[in-house]
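Quick question, first post here. What does this chain look like in 3D?
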Amino acid sequence: MSDQLIPAQILHVDDDPEALDDLRDFLQGEEIPGWRLPEVTGIKSFGNALSELEARRFDLMILDVRLGGHEEQDVAPEQEEGARTLEQIKQRRFLPVIFWTGLPGKVEHLASPLIRVLEKGDLDALIATVRELFATRLPALNRALRHLIEDEQRHYMWGFVAEHWDELRAGGDDMALAYLLVRRLGRSLSGPGIETVAAELGDAGPPPPPNKIHAAEMYIVPPLQGTAPGVADLFCERSGENGDRWWLVMTPSCDLERGKAEWVVLAACAPVGEDSRLQKWWESESGGNTAKLRDLLDHKTGGQDDRHLFLPQALTIPDLVADFQRLRSVTRDDLDGMERVASLASPFAEAAVSRFGRYFGRVGTDDLDVEAIKTRLKDARPPAQEDGGE
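> Answer (accepted):
Ran it through. Tokens below.
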């Protein structure tokens, strides 16, 4: 968060004007760490609340379940106005939601870490829950991402489109601008944008050293919706008692997308704790045996080093080592029965393919008699030229 804190924006929906006023007066006097005192907007209509969400940006929403009395009615829980409104909110944007209601039983099935259900009356529980949701840092991340995208769009529109409008219109390709902007946004989000978001979050932790990346930047989690499985996708077989089994797809993406691959080649990915290089490092009291481990973690290439690919821990992905000697072929149906957890991001996906190809494309040759060649070259050395005198 920047030095100049901004107020938390909270939207409250309840048809009781007195309840709206009371909750606004209470919340606007309560501190939320990392934010200025909240500003609370009260709305008496679910429909108007959705319109307000379209017009303004909020960080959290407090929602009643039913407008009107709390007397028993023959209404299915999913048909309650609050539950229906939540589904419409999900279709528009993300923000944490607190159901603050006299009918908590109607929406208990919707409760999750980011959707809380509280019975009206306990204000201490309410402010504690508000603080918990802001402490997830998701409202701050929401703002930082929105600022990044809007700032990049502003720079692009004023700095490029406005200055070259006549040239761009002359091309007659109305979609070109959209493609260019989306590509630029993608590049910004995956490059300097990460530093911008980290700076806005402030105390989210120290950034990686120069020329280094955070491990999470290697992955796209989850894989892009609507895309077919592809090369360098990471799959998991959830096998319960025997532990999870992880696999890295090595079949070309085009074969998978076009249905040409009858069999899919997978490389086994073992927990890094099973790797002998890490085990020897653990066993060394002096902290030695680091060279081979560093080669693995640094993605050293060439020769036998290409056999293994280290995949660092990120979110639900553990530290893994892909082994290009331990290959398995499965049908597409078998692959679809596994969980597709992540895709390696560019250029790590391309690097994995290159590594795989190098390892199996090696050509062994007999060693030359280097000493004999050195002797011959030494004997062939031209005699030294003498300096001429006067």
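Residues 138-161 form the longest helix (24 residues).
The first strand starts at residue 7 and ends at 13.
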